Amino acid sequence: QAGAAGSTAAAALLGLGYSGATEPEVAITCGALHVPRLAEAAGSVSGPVRMHFDARGAVSNLRIVPQAEESSPPADGEVELRVRAVGLNFRDVLNVLGVYPGDPGPPGSDCAADVARCGGGAPHLRVGDAVLGHGLAALASFARSDSRLMAAIDDSLSFEQACTLPTTWCTVHMSLLASRPRAGHHALLQAGAGGVGLAAGDYARWIGARASVTVGRPYKHCWYLHGVALRGETLSSRDGGAFVVGAAALLGASRLSFVLNSLSADFIAGSFALLGEGGCLCEIGKRAVWSAERQRSASAARYVAIALDSTIEQTPVWMRGTLQLLSARAAARVLHGLPLQSFAMESGLLSAFRTLQAGTNTGKVVIRIPSTATAPPRATHLLSGGTGG
C-alpha cells in the first residue's frame, strides 16, 4: 500500500516478525497476526435422511440424521412413500416447542410423494403414483401412511403445490360442511394470509360467498391486496379492539353468517359479536379455546370446534373420500396450490420452522426433501460446465 498508511502497516508487520516469504496475505488484529486457512467442512449426510430431535422445547434442537432402511414390507392397508415435499402447519411448530395440547406425534404430516411400496388392501394406489395426503413422520426421505389417508394426483399440481393442501383444504371443507354458507352470505376469515385463510378465501369465492379477512403486519396487507388470485378482498385490522370497530363499520347494519377463527383472546368474543342470528363460528385454534358452556352463555350463534387430527384418527374412510374429492377438484382446475415459501431440508430446515414460528410467512411454508437418487458406479456420466467452480 502506497503512502504513509502503507509504511505504517509495513513497519507494524516487521515489528511482529512477518517476513512475507511464506504468507501472501496477513491481517493484524489487536497486535496479533492472522493468516487465512481453509476449515474442514462439516460432513454432509448422504442417502436417505430424516428429521430428528432429542427433546422438545426449541427449534434449534432439530437436526438431520441418516434414515435406516425399513426392512419389513408395508402392512395391509399401508403404503411406503418416497417423500418429495412437506407442508408445515403451525401445529408442527407447537409440537417442536412442546406446547401442543396432548400427544401430537412426530412433526410433519402434510406431504406429497411417490408411492414406493404398497401393502395389500390399497386398490386405489399403485407403485409409482404421485400422491398427496397425511403421512406419519413425513419429514424424511421415506415415510409410511395408512393408504386411506393418501390420494393420487395428476400433473395439475407440482409436489410443492400439492403438499400445501391436505390440512388447509380439508379443514376448510369440514368447516363449510358444518356452517353451510351459501352464495351471498358474508364470511370472516381470521389470519387470511395463512394457509387455511387462503384456502378458505378460494373456497368462499367458489361457492359465491363474500369473504372478508383479517391480516396482521402491514406488508401482508400489501401482499394480500396485490396478489393475483386475491385482488379485491376486503381487509380489516387484526389488532384487538380495532378489529371489532373496523369490522362493525364494514358491516354497517348487517351481520356475518360465518366466521373461521384461529385467533384467541378478544378475537373470539369480537367474532361472536359480529355474527347474526343463526350464524356459525368454526374454531380451528388450539389455544384459549372457549368451552361449550361459555359459548352458550355469550352468544346465540352456533359454535363448532374443528379438529382435523381427531377426524383423521377416528374416521379415515371419510378422509379418503375428502382427499379424493380434493384430488378431483385439482384435476378439474377448480382449485390450485396455495402461495408458498419453499426451503431445502438439508440447508433450510431451521429457517422454515423459524419463519412459521415468527409468523413472517405469506402462504404456506414448504420443505423440499432431498433426492436419494445415486449415480450408478459402473456407468459413463456427462458433466456440463465442468470447468466452472
UniProtKB/TrEMBL annotation:
A Gene Ontology molecular function term of the record: NADPH binding
Organism domain of life: Eukaryota
Name of protein: Enoyl reductase (ER) domain-containing protein
Keyword Manganese (UniProt): no
Keywords linked to the UniProt accession: NADP, Oxidoreductase
Pfam family, one: ADH_N
Residue span, Enoyl reductase (ER) domain: 57-367
Lineage: Eukaryota, Haptista, Haptophyta, Prymnesiophyceae, Isochrysidales
InterPro entries xrefs: ADH-like_N, ER, GroES-like_sf, NAD(P)-bd_dom_sf
Gene3D superfamilies: Medium-chain alcohol dehydrogenases, catalytic domain, NAD(P)-binding Rossmann-like Domain
Keyword tRNA-binding: no
